Amino acid sequence: MNRRLFLQAGGITTLSGVFPAALTADTASTVIDVTAQPGQTNIVGPDFPATDVWGFNGEVPGTPIRLRLGQSVDATIHNALEVPTAVHWHGIRLPNAMDGVAGLTQPAIAPGESFHYQFTPPDSGTYWYHSHVNAYEQIGRGLYGPLIIDETTPPVVDRDLTWMIDDWRLLDDASISGDFGNGHDRSHAGRIGNVPTVNGRFRDVVKVRTGERIRLRLINASNARNFSLSFGDLKPSVIAIDGQSVTPYVTDETIVIGAAGRVDLILDMTGDPGSKMPVVDNFYRQSYDLTQFVYEQSPLRDQPLDSAINLPPSLIPEPDLANATAHVVTIAGGAMGGLQRAKLDGEWMSLRKVAQQGYVWAINDVVGNKLRMPPLIDTKQGSSIILTIRNETAFPHPMHLHGHHMKLLSIDGKALSEPRWVDSPLVMPRQTMKFAFVADNPGEWLFHCHALEHHAAGLGALVKIS
Description:
Elements: H1 3-8, E1 29-41, E2 51-56, E3 65-68, E4 72-79, E5 87-90, E6 114-119, E7 125-131, H2 135-138, E8 144-150, E9 159-168, H3 183-187, E10 195-198, E11 205-208, E12 213-220, E13 227-230, E14 237-241, E15 244-250, E16 255-257, E17 262-268, E18 276-281, E19 288-295, E20 325-333, E21 341-344, E22 347-350, H4 351-356, E23 361-363, E24 377-379, E25 383-391, E26 397-401, E27 406-411, E28 414-422, E29 426-427, E30 432-439, E31 443-449, H5 452-456, E32 460-465
Parallel strand pairs: 1-4, 3-8, 9-12, 11-19, 20-25, 24-32
Antiparallel strand pairs: 1-2, 4-6, 5-7, 7-8, 9-10, 12-17, 13-16, 13-18, 14-15, 14-17, 18-19, 20-23, 21-22, 25-30, 26-29, 26-31, 27-28, 27-30, 31-32
C-alpha cells in the first residue's frame, strides 16, 4: 500500500477498541472449540475492499479466550485451511506435549483434521495463542488470538482492554502481499508491514471518559515489528511484563514491546472532556499515530481512583544462582552481521554456501535448520541455568524460550534494580542480557527468535530437559 493510500485511510474508524465476548466458563474447565479458517476483515476501512485473512474462527484477532487462575483448558482446534497448522500457547508453562510445535511436540494438524489440547495454566496474566507451522506466513495472515488468565485478586479498574498490536504488508487493493519469507526479510529486520493495527483495525479510535481507570493489555502479534509507544500526557503505570507481575512503576518514557512480548499498563485518563490524544509509535525513524483516545463529553469522575494496582506475586520458582550452570549464547549473522561461516547439518560451511540454502543466522555458529537437532542446552530437571545472550548482529531479536520464563538479571553488565520475569525479551543490536531460570519443565523445548523470518532463516535451537 503506497504512502498516499496509507494516509488517506487515516481516521476511518470509530470503534471502541474492545473485543467481543471471550470464551469463558464458570466451571473448573473451559471448553474451547476453535477453527483455523479463511475469513475476511476490513482492516483499512470502508473505502477499501475487505482483506482476505486466515483467522481462528475466521476472525482477526481470533476469538478471545479468558480463564480464571486454576481453570484448565480443554481446547479442540479444527483445521479448515488448505495447509497444515498447529497452535502454540505463547508464554504458558504447560506440558511439553501441549506446546503446539508441529514436528517437535505433536504432528501438524492436517487440513480437515483436529487436535485436542488440555492443560491447566499455572500462572495468571496476559498471553496469546498462535499458529506454529510456517508461522511467518500463518501469523502474517492473522492466525492468532488473545489468552487472558485473570488473577484471583485483580486490581480495581473501570475497564480491562486488550490491544493486539500488529502490522500488515498490504497492497493498494488492501490484499495481503504474498512475498512471505523473502530473502530481504530473512536477512534484515524481518517482515515489517506498512499498515499498523490495533485489534485488526488501522487507526482505530478508542472512546474514553475523563477520570476512567483502564487496565490496558498490550500484545505484540506482529511478525517482526517492535513498538515504542508514547501515551502523550498520560503517565502509564507498568504492572506486568510478559504476563508476570512487576512492582508497579510510573514511566514518562515510551513503552517498548518487542515482537511476541506483552506489557500490562494502568492508565488513568486525565484528559479534558471532548479532547483527543494520539498513541504514537516511534520505534523506527518515522513515527506515526497507532490509535487515538477520544474523550467523551461527560466525565466519569473528577479524580483518579485511589486504589492499589499491585498484582499478586509470580509463582515461578526462583533459580539457585550460586549453583547454577552457566551457558553463553551468541547470535550472529544477517546483513552486516559479520558471520563468516557456520555449521549446517553438522558440516562447516561458508556463509555464502549457507545462504544459498536459505539460512543467514546462527546461534553459537550453528544454524537451526530443523526441529530435531542436538540441543543447545541439555540439562536435568530441576537444575538452575544462567543464560547469557549476546546479540552480535545489526538487528533486534526477541528471543522466546518455550515452556519457561527467564528472570532478566542484567543488561550489558549492569544489574537490574529489580530483576523481572520474561519469556520473549527483546535483545537489541550489540547488546548482552543475562538471565536465570529453573529447568523444571521436562521435554524438548524450542528456543528461537520471534522475528519469525529470522527463525525460519536459522535463528533457533533446542533446550532439552530430562
